[in-house]
């Protein structure tokens, strides 16, 4: 589904992605982990076309996406921190995005319902709590039934019930054959939802393995310990 080949990206002198190679298939939840600043968000933004790589390629179903736009409608994105016009009401933000995506065949309002967002439709974005803003971001990411979802620390700031709702949604959409990339630092969450873990270290792929494979490789039952063991290996 997505293939990343020799991807390079620098910000000034800082080399963030250094010849990154990795591929992801459909019907999988892949947890993207790695130390702060390892390049996880940058990789996601390169896939989304929000950051232009300096070299290498990103292919969707074998076709390069670089310099193209239309493919983006197949990807839902939930940013780490959603930024919205402060004065717009939730209703207006949702209507605006629906208007931009008039072409979408299917509109999925499940999260709007589960998060009871309609009861807050007239609140302004600038007046929302961080968690409520996250709920709006989650609802928008899933809204147009994209084949691919890129979720950047999606449960950070969500209360436990809202986080459970999101995790169930992730698993439901995975069963429908979607590819879901999730950046997370929470081991219990990774173990609950992910099939595979991709670890970025210093802009390169440290490993990309199934959860069972990681535990077997490290000879550790606890995922957190297994990952720490592999990350410490040279
Ligand atoms: N627009 C930018 N301009 C300059 N440097 C940037 C920019 N965006 C990211 N960086 C730098 O690139 C590096 C990688 O950032 P990135 O956000 O991809 O890391 P990350 O793995 O997602 O980190 P975290 O776990 O903290 O979210 C960091 O050192 C960051 O400061």
Automatic annotation (TrEMBL):
| UniProt xrefs under SMART domains | AAA
Give GO MF terms, alphabetically: ATP binding; ATP hydrolysis activity
In terms of superkingdom, the source organism counts as Bacteria
Q: Keyword annotations for this protein?
A: ATP-binding, Nucleotide-binding, Transport
Task: Name the Gene3D superfamilies on file.
Answer: P-loop containing nucleotide triphosphate hydrolases (3.40.50.300)
All copies of domain ABC transporter, residue ranges = 2-227
Name-wise, this protein is Cu-processing system ATP-binding protein
> What lineage, starting at the top, does this entry show?
Bacteria, Pseudomonadati, Bacteroidota, Cytophagia, Cytophagales
């Amino acid at each position: 589904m997505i293939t990343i080949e020799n991807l390079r990206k620098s910000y000034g002198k800082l080399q963030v992605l250094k010849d990154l190679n990795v591929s992801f298939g459909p019907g999988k939840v892949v947890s993207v982990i790695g130390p702060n600043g390892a390049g996880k968000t940058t990789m996601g933004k390169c896939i989304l076309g929000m950051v232009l790589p300096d070299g290498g390629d990103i292919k969707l179903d074998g076709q390069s996406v670089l310099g193209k736009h239309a493919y983006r409608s197949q990807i839902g994105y939930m940013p780490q921190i959603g930024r919205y016009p402060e004065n717009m009401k939730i209703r207006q933000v949702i209507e605006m995005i629906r208007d931009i995506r008039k072409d979408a065949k299917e509109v999925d309002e499940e999260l709007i319902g589960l998060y009871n967002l309609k009861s807050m439709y007239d609140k302004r974005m600038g007046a929302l709590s961080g968690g409520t803003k996250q709920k709006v971001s989650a609802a928008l990411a899933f809204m147009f039934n994209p084949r691919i979802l890129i979720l950047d620390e999606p449960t950070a700031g969500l209360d436990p019930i809202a986080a459970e709702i999101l995790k169930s949604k992730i698993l439901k959409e995975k069963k429908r054959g979607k590819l879901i990339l999730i950046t997370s630092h929470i081991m219990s969450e990774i173990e609950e939802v992910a099939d595979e873990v991709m670890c970025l270290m210093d802009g390169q792929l440290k490993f990309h393995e199934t959860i069972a494979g990681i535990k077997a490789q490290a000879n550790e039952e606890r995922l957190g310990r297994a990952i720490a063991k592999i990350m410490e290996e040279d």
